[in-house]
Specification:
178 residues, alpha+beta, 11 strands, binds dinuclear copper ion
Length: 178
Amino acid sequence: MSDRTTEAPPPPPADSAGIDPYEKNWMRFSIVLLVVFFAAVTVAGFALGFQVPGEDAEVDPATVTQSGPFSDPGLREVADGEYELYMIARTWLFEPRELEIPVGSKVTFYITSVDVQHGFKIQDTNVNMMIVPGQVSKLSYTFDRVGEYPFICHEYCGSGHAAMYGTIRVVQETGGGA
Ligand code: CUA
C-alpha cells in the first residue's frame, strides 16, 4: 500500500491542464505558423493582388457560346505574330483541339468551360490554368521552338477526362515560299 503511493507520478503543475510543457511549445509554434501563413495569403491576395492564374472575365456558361468570340472558337491574328485563341472546354474535349502557329508567335489564351471544372496545361511550358465554368481564364505564351506541344485537361472531370487533350503545332513560317 505505502509502496504504491511513493511510485505515483507527481501531480502536474496547476496551470498545465495536464499537457507536457514540451508539447505545449509545439502547440504554440503551430499556432504561430498558422497566423504567419494566414497573414502571407491575405497580404498576397489583397495587398499584392495575387489571384488564381488568368481570371479575366465572368461569363454565363449557358449562353457563352451563343454570341461573342466564344461562338466561333479558334485562333485570330491580332497583329504580326500575335494571336488570340478563344477556346471552349467541355466534357470531354477542347474546341479547337488542333492548331498550328508559326514559330515565334505570341498567343493569348482565353478559355472557358461550358459545364464542369476543367484544367489546361501545355507540356514543357509554364501554361497551366484552371478552367472554371462562368469565368474566362487568360494567359499569354510565346512559342519560340518548332515542335508539337500537347495540351491536356489536368483536372479530373469525369469518365472521359483522359481523352481530353489536343496539340499545338509550332511550325516554320511558310509565307513567302521559302
Ligand atoms: Cu476536362 Cu479533365
